[in-house]
Amino acid sequence: MATDEKNKDQPTQEENTNGEKIEDIVAEKARKLLVSSQICKQQRLNRIALYEALYNNDVPPRLRQMFNVIPPVFSGMIDSLLAQFNDEVKLKFTTKNPAQHLVVPKIQAHWETEKDTMTPNAMWNYKARTDRFNASLSGRGIFQEYAFNKPKYQNVLKVINYSDFHCEPLGGGLLDLHSFKGIEGCFRSEYELKNNSKYDQTQVEKLITDYPANESFATLETTYGTRFERWRALGLDVETNNFSAEKKYNLCDFILMHEGKQYNVVFEPCSGVWVYCKEWTEQNPFKSYATHEDDKNFWSKSYADDLYNIADAIIIMVNQELTNREKKNFNSRAFDKDMFTDVAKLDAAQYRPDALVPANTNGGTKRIAEGIYSFETAELKGTVDLVNWLSGYTGDKVGTDEMPPGAGKNKVAVQLAMQQKQSKRIGLRSDSFKECYAQLGTKYIENLALYMPAKVSVQLIGENGFVEEAELKRIEVKDVKDSIGITVISTSEQEQADAMKKDSRVKAIEMVAKNPTLTKFEKETIYRDVGQYTEDEIVFLLDTKGEISKKQIAHASQNIQDIFEGKQPDI
Description:
The chain is an alpha+beta fold. The protein has 17 helices and 14 strands. The two termini are 43 Å apart.
C-alpha cells in the first residue's frame, strides 16, 4: 500500500495517446469511484449511526413521555456476543511436505513474537477485539496489512472502520473480486507531505497552493457524514473544537483496476489532486469478513440489525411503565371553582396531612365529592413479562442467551446439548472471521518474503523441550511462501478438541502397552484409528531406540527434493 513508511521512489509520469498523464486519469477515476461508493453506502451508515448512539445510551426523549431511561439491553446483547467470540488470535502455519519443517516452525515463532508485540503496528489481539465490535454493528470487519523495510522492517496491521472504507458497490461479498478498494481518512500535514520522498513533490506543491487545508471539525464532518457519531453519543464536542493543532489534509488511498493494470493512487478527494500514483503488483492489502455472509452484497446485515428494534421496543415499554407510575402517583384533578374558592389551600391539602379546606356546598345541596374529579391513568399490565420474553426469545435466536443450569440427573446432558447448540451457532458466524485471519497470515508471509532482512533470529522450542536459537532467512521464506498451509485456531474449540484428543491418545497408548505381542501393523492401526496420531507421529512412537528426529526427516526430505531437481544434496 502507498504508505509513508515504505519510502519508495517517486512514480514516473506516463502519458497516453492523447497526451494525458496516466496518473491524472487514474486519480480522476478514483475520485469518481469514491463518490459512487459513498452514495451507495450512505443510507447504511445512517442506520449504523443509530446503533452507535444506542450502544452509548444516547437516545433522544420521546414526546409525551416523562422518562428517558435507557436499560442496557442493546449494549448488553452486543457485549454478550463479543464475549462469545473473544478468543485469542492464533494462526498455525502448517507444512505440506516434511522438508518445510526446517522453515515453517521458524515462521511460526516469528509470527508469535509479532502477534504479542505491544507496539502500535502489531497488537493483533487488541485489534481483533476492536474489529469484532465494528463488525457487530456494521456486519463487516475490515483490516489492512502491509510492510516496509526503511528504516527497518515492520509488518503493520490496521483496523479499518466501515465509515472509512470504500469498494465496488455491486462487487459482491468477496473483496478480492472488487475492481477497486481503498480508504479515506489518511490525514497528512503539510510538513509530512513535503518531507516524504514517496510523494510527488510537484503534485504536493499544487495541492498546498491551490487547495489550502482546513483544520476544523465542521469541514471534516461535511466530508465524512456520520464519522463522528461515536463522539457525539458520548457528549464530546466535535462542532467547535479543532481537529489538531496543525492543518491536515484528508487523503484517500485506493487500489483500482485501469486498462488491465492495478494502480495504487493517493489523492485528495475534494480537489482530486493526486500525490502518489504507481502500478500495484502485490497482494490485496485489505482483508474483510462478514458476520452474515451475502455473496451478492458486501455491506451485508449485522447482529445490530437483529437487536436494535427489539431493544428500542423494550426501552419504550420500560419508559411507558415509569411514566404511568409517575402519573398514578401525581394524577391530575379537576375541581369546582365555585365550591373551592381558596385554590391554594386545596392544592396544599394534596401533600399536607390533616389540612382543612373551605368548601361551599351551596347550603348542603352539593356533596364535596361532586366538586373534585380525578383523571385515572390506566395501569399497564404484563410489561415485565413481555420485556423478559422479548429479551429471552431474541437472545435464544441470535445467540446472546446464557445456557440454563439444567436440573437433577439431566443437568449434565442439558449443559452438553446447549454447548453443542451454541458452539454450532458461533461456528457458523466465526468461519468468515477465521478465513479472513488466514488471509492475513498469507499476507504476513508475503510481507516477510518481500521486506524482511536477509536473516533474523528466532527462538524455537526444540524436540527436547529446550529453547533453541535459530535463523530465519528471507530466501527460505521465498522458497516456501506459496505452499504453506494456514489454519486459524479457536482457543475455546481447541481446548475441547485437545481434551478429546488427549483421551484418545492415552487410550491408544494403554491398548498397545497392555498387549506387548501386537504386531507392528496392529500397533500402527491402533495409533492411527484410536489415537488419531499422524503418520509422522506414528513413526516416532514405533522408534523405541530414539534414533529418529523431525529434523532428520526434514533434512532427508529436502535432500530427496534436491536430487530430483539435479542439485547436490547436503551431506
